[in-house]
C-alpha cells in the first residue's frame, strides 16, 4: 500500500493516547458567552445587536464587513450584556459581544433548504457565507472565499485534511470515528462546487481504524478516495499535504487553487455540511483539552464563546499547577498567560503541561550540524535565515527564500544547540510581509 509523504519533517512524541480513545463530551456553558468580532482573517464583523437585546441560539449578532470577513452567531439564548473590548487568547483586547446565558438554549427557526442536487454553485457558497464558516484548523480564513477561486473548473482535487499531525490533538480523530458520514457528506457538498474534481480523505497511517472505516464507507463512491499518509509532522501543513497527495508543489506566492486544489480540515468540512444541508450557522466546535497537567484529558463539543476556565473544570481541573499552557498544539500553538478568555471558531486545543522544558533550555552556539536543513520541509536553510533575522538583514533573508518557511517548528525541535530558529524566522517573515503590504498600499 502506497504511503504519501514529503521530504523533511520530524517524529515528535505525539501525546495522542491521553485523549484519543475517549468519546466527545458536550459542554454546556455556565457563565457569560463572549464573541470577539474578529475570529478570522480579514475585516472584523460589525455588531448588529445592542446592549439589552435578547438573542437566541443561532441568531446572527455580527455581520461580515466585506468579502474577506465572517459573520458571528450567538451559540446560546440570553441577553446582550455588553459590547466592549475583551481579552482573547492571543492577549489582545478585541471588541466583543457579551451575552448573558439564560440557560434555556432557545434556538431560532432555521429557514428550509433545498436538496443538494437542486442547488446551484452560488446558492451553496451563499449558505457557507451566511453560516460564518472559517478555516477551523487555526488560520481562520473565511471559507466562502476559499470556495470561490477564479477558475473553479481548473480544480481537480478537493482534499479533506484528516492528517491531524500536530502532537496531542485528537479532535479530528474523534469527529471522524464518531460522525464519519458528516465528513463524507460535507466533502460531497464541496465536490458539487467543482465538477472536475475528485475528493481525497487524507489520513495519517497512525489512524488505521479511521482509514479502514472511511474506505468501507466510500467503497461505492467513484469520486472519493482515501489516501494513507505516512505519519510525520508537519504532514497536515496545507503545502506539504498537497504535495504528498498530488505531487504538485506550491510556494509562498501561490494559493492551493493555483495547483488545482482546495483543502479544508475536518471540522470545517463538517460545518459546511451543516450549513448547506441543514441551514445552520457555525456555533460549535470540538476542542481538545489535554496534557499531563489535566486530570481527565478529552475532547469537548463546545459552544463558541465558552470561557476556557469552564473547559478546564469539565476536564477535572489540574493535577498540579501547569508551568506551560498552550493554545493549540506544542509545535505551532502559542503560550497563553490568562485562561479567562473565550473559545473562538479557531480554538482547536488547550494543552497544559506540568513542566516548561523550553524555558529551562539555554541556547548555545550553532555547531553547523545541518540537522535543521535535513528536517526542514520548506527546503530552506533555517540556521542561515535565523542569522539574517537576528541581524535584521531582511534583504538577504528574503533573497534566501525566507518566505518559504511555514513556521512548523521542526528546526527548533531538532536543534542540538537549542536555538530558537523558528521564532527568529517567524519575526523576520512578519516584518518582510508587513513591508510588502505597506509598499502595495503606497502604490494604490
Report the top-level CATH class of the domain at 118-278: Alpha Beta
Shape annotation: globular
What is the CATH topology descriptor of the domain at 118-278?
Answer: Rossmann fold
N-to-C span: 53 Å
Helices and strands, in order, run as EEEEEEEEHHEHHEHEHEHEEHEEEHHHHH
Estimate the helix proportion, in percent.
Answer: 25-40%
Which segments are poorly predicted (pLDDT under 50) over 5 or more consecutive residues? none
Which strands sit side by side, in order, in the main sheet? 1-14-13-17-15-16
Structural class: alpha/beta
Which range does the strand content fall in? 15-25%
Q: How many strand units?
A: 17
In the CATH classification, which architecture of the domain at 118-278 applies? 3-Layer(aba) Sandwich
Within CATH, the superfamily of the domain at 118-278 carries the name: NADH-ubiquinone oxidoreductase 51kDa subunit
Question: Rg, please?
Answer: 22 Å
Query: Mean of the pLDDT scores?
Result: 95
Number of helical regions:
13
User: How would you sum up the major sheet?
Assistant: 6 strands, mixed
Account of the 3D structure:
The chain has about 450 residues and is an alpha/beta fold. Among the domains are: about 120-280, NADH-ubiquinone oxidoreductase 51kDa subunit (Rossmann fold), CATH 3.40.50; about 370-444. Helices cover about 30% and strands about 20% of the residues. The chain has 13 helices and 17 strands. The chain has helices at about 120-130, 145, 170-180, 180-195, 210-215, 240-245, 265-280, 310-315, 370-375, 380-390, 395-400, 410-415, 420-444, and strands spanning about 25, 35, 45, 55, 60-65, 70-75, 80-85, 95-100, 155-160, 200-205, 225-230, 260-265, 285-290, 300-305, 325, 335, 350-355. The strands form 4 sheets. It has a 6-stranded mixed sheet, sandwiched between helices. The protein has a 4-stranded antiparallel sheet with strand order 2-8-7-4, with no helix packed on it. A hairpin with an 8-residue loop joins β5 (about 60-65) and β6. α4 crosses α7 (about 265-280) and α10 (about 380-390) crosses α13. It is globular and about 65 Å long. The chain starts with about 25 loop residues before the first strand and ends with a helix. The relative contact order is 0.15. The mean pLDDT is about 95.
Amino acid at each position: 500500500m502506497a504511503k504519501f509523504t514529503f521530504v523533511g519533517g520530524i517524529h515528535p512524541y505525539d501525546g495522542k493516547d491521553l485523549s484519543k480513545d475517549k468519546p466527545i463530551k458536550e459542554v454546556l456553558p455556565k457563565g457569560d458567552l463572549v464573541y470577539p468580532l474578529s475570529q478570522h482573517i480579514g475585516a472584523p464583523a460589525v455588531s448588529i445587536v445592542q446592549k439589552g437585546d435578547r438573542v437566541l441560539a443561532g441568531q446572527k449578532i455580527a455581520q461580515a464587513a466585506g468579502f474577506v470577513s465572517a459573520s458571528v452567531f450567538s451559540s446560546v439564548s440570553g441577553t446582550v450584556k455588553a459590547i466592549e473590548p475583551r481579552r482573547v487568547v492571543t492577549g489582545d483586547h478585541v471588541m466583543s459581544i457579551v451575552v448573558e446565558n439564560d440557560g434555556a438554549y432557545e434556538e431560532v427557526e432555521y429557514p428550509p433548504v433545498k436538496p443538494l442536487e437542486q442547488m446551484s454553485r452560488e446558492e451553496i457558497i451563499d449558505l457557507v457565507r451566511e453560516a460564518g464558516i472559517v478555516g477551523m484548523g487555526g488560520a481562520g480564513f473565511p471559507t466562502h472565499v476559499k470556495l470561490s477561486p477564479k477558475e473553479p473548473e481548473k480544480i481537480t482535487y478537493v482534499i479533506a485534511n484528516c492528517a491531524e499531525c500536530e502532537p496531542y490533538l485528537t479532535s479530528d480523530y474523534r469527529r471522524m470515528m464518531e460522525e464519519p458520514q458528516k465528513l463524507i457528506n460535507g466533502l460531497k457538498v464541496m465536490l458539487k462546487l467543482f465538477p472536475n474534481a475528485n475528493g481525497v480523505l487524507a489520513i495519517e497511517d497512525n489512524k488505521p481504524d479511521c482509514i479502514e472505516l472511511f474506505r468501507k464507507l466510500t467503497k461505492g463512491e467513484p469520486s472519493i478516495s482515501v489516501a494513507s499518509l505516512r505519519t510525520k509532522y508537519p504532514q497536515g501543513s496545507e503545502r506539504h499535504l498537497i504535495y504528498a497527495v498530488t505531487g504538485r508543489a506550491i510556494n509562498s506566492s501561490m494559493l492551493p487553487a493555483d495547483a488545482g486544489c482546495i483543502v479544508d480540515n475536518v471540522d470545517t468540512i463538517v460545518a459546511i455540511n451543516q450549513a448547506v444541508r441543514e441551514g445552520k450557522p457555525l456555533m460549535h466546535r470540538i476542542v481538545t483539552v489535554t496534557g499531563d497537567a489535566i486530570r481527565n484529558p478529552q475532547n469537548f463539543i463546545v459552544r463558541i464563546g465558552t470561557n476556557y476556565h469552564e473547559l478546564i473544570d469539565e476536564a477535572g481541573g489540574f493535577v498540579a499547577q501547569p508551568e506551560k499552557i498552550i493554545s493549540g498544539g506544542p509545535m505551532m500553538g502559542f503560550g497563553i498567560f490568562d485562561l479567562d478568555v473565550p473559545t473562538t471558531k479557531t480554538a482547536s486545543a488547550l494543552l497544559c503541561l506540568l513542566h516548561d522544558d523550553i524555558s529551562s533550555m539555554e541556547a548555545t552556539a550553532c555547531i553547523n550540524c545541518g540537522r535543521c536543513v535535513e528536517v526542514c520541509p520548506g527546503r530552506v536553510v533555517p540556521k542561515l535565515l535565523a542569522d539574517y533575522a537576528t541581524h535584521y538583514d531582511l534583504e538577504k533573508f528574503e533573497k534566501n527564500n525566507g518566505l518559504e518557511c511555514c513556521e512548523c517548528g521542526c528546526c527548533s525541535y531538532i536543534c542540538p544547540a537549542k536555538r530558537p530558529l523558528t521564532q527568529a524566522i517567524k519575526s523576520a517573515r512578519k516584518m518582510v510581509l508587513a513591508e510588502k503590504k505597506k509598499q502595495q498600499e503606497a502604490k494604490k
